[in-house]
Amino acid sequence: MKRRIGIVGCGVIGSQLARSIQEEFAKKAKLVALCDLEEEKARQLSRRFSISPSICSINELIGKSDLIIESASANIAAEVAEECLKRGRDVLIMSSGGLFGREDILELAEQKNSHLYIPSGALAGLDGAKAAGLGKIFSVVLISRKPPRGLEGAPYILENKIDLFKIKEETTIFEGDVQQAEKAFPRNINIAAGISLALGSCDMTVRIITSPQFKTNSHQLILKGEFGELTVETNNLPSPDNPKTSYLAALSAVATLKDILGYVQVGT
């Protein structure tokens, strides 16, 4: 029987997933519903396909679907995850930053015998981090390098009146723990949240560096524990459809869906 899939958020990642469901995974899944705060986005995406999915509210979408995919915003990620799990649905959350500090949602998945899927997104190495987290962890450092435009509007930038465009050389503008990073850069916290979820309870240092010379977003994870040391770095090119979205994050979403629908899973 085909999995009935509903997508909340019809931007770059939602569109990529919809296309993959209709083309690559058509024998195993059916796109039954779409939802977006901007309804016209959902309608535009729906018109791309010969079999048009329903355009409906989140509540209606959950009722129509076996698997719900959130690719909208960290602002609604927890709400979507919680409602799906309460109703016994499986859910894939792209905006993992929205689950930060919500251990109750992780527990709810087990209570309701439902699955909560969180893709790796724009950072490689979460499989190794997850395995390492079964032993003792000594230190975790996440270093994110972003061009100034990628940090515009963040609360930390506004509160400290930092003029990003006066920065002329590589500058560390933030260093703190993951809780501080979540408050300072809520739109940039997905990667740190993913690491935190993979490792469980741990102390993590988040460092954010900017420079006008940076043309892409890069993320470096340095993990030390009784297993040894793990260092992973990704230099992400933007999606061809939207420069604000990492292409790797979109591909990660499709790869996770492939694992969910498939019979063979490679990696920890």
Describe the structure.
The protein has two domains: 3-118 and 247-261, 3-Layer(aba) Sandwich (Rossmann fold); 126-236, Dihydrodipicolinate Reductase, domain 2 (2-Layer Sandwich), CATH 3.30.360.10. The chain has helices at 12-23, 39-46, 58-64, 74-86, 103-111, 126-132, 155-159, 178-184, 190-199, 247-261, and strands spanning 3-8, 29-35, 54-55, 67-70, 90-93, 116-117, 137-146, 171-177, 204-210, 217-225, 228-236, 238-239, 242-246. The mean pLDDT is 93. The relative contact order is 0.16. The chain is of the alpha/beta class. Helix 2 (39-46) links the parallel strand 2 and strand 3. The protein starts with a strand and ends in a 7-residue tail after the last helix.
